[in-house]
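hey
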């Protein structure tokens, strides 16, 4: 495991995200919605830096393998508070191709919010496949597979307090 962003740098990035959110919304009520499961650590750290009246919820996007190459993304918003008329900030660990964020933004928009924005901790270089950009990304990183601070490899490593890059010895042979 090679450390890409140590605990202190991650903390600074989350602080910058909190400043962005505070400047954007001021004292207005906000609903922060974390994308499961990768955003849990970020969600917990970010909301404790925010001081406006806040609602918190989560949403999940699962991918089901269909006839096409790419598994179809299905959004589960059962654990999301009512967002009608609310300012909503979606939170995710990483913006990679952007398909997850696009799907969830469109779903939330269909629920009649006042506004929808998105913030991510990490943004990978040269991977974007959709015409949507996060409103805030704390770090732009190279195109490498990263884990920690919520990000997983086969559902492990989410608890690392830093962001690391997996090395060949850490990778499994079997298909996911
Ligand atoms: P996208 O839909 O391609 O933008 O993918 C976003 C999702 O893929 C994230 O929420 C992560 O769960 C996962 N993901 C993408 N890149 C990585 C990575 O380097 N490590 C761990 N998970 C990743
Ligand atoms: Mg995720």
């Amino acid at each position: 495991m090679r450390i890409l962003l140590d605990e202190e740098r991650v903390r600074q990035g989350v602080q910058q995200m909190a400043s962005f959110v505070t400047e954007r919304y001021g004292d207005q009520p906000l609903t922060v919605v974390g994308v499961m499961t990768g955003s849990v650590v970020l969600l917990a750290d970010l909301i404790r830096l925010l001081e406006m009246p806040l609602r918190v919820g989560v949403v999940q996007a699962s991918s089901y393998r269909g006839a096409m190459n790419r598994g179809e993304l299905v959004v589960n918003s059962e654990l999301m508070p009512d967002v009608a008329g609310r300012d909503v900030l979606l939170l995710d660990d990483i913006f990679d191709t952007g398909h997850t964020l696009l799907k969830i933004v469109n779903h939330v928009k269909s629920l009649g919010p006042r506004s929808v924005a998105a913030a991510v901790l990490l943004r990978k270089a040269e991977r974007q496949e959709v015409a949507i950009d996060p409103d805030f990304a704390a770090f732009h990183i190279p195109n490498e597979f990263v884990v920690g601070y919520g990000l997983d490899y086969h559902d492990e490593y989410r608890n690392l307090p830093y962001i690391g890059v997996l090395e060949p010895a850490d990778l499994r042979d079997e298909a996911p």
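The CA atoms of residues 94 and 122 lie 5 Å apart. The chain has a mean pLDDT of 93.
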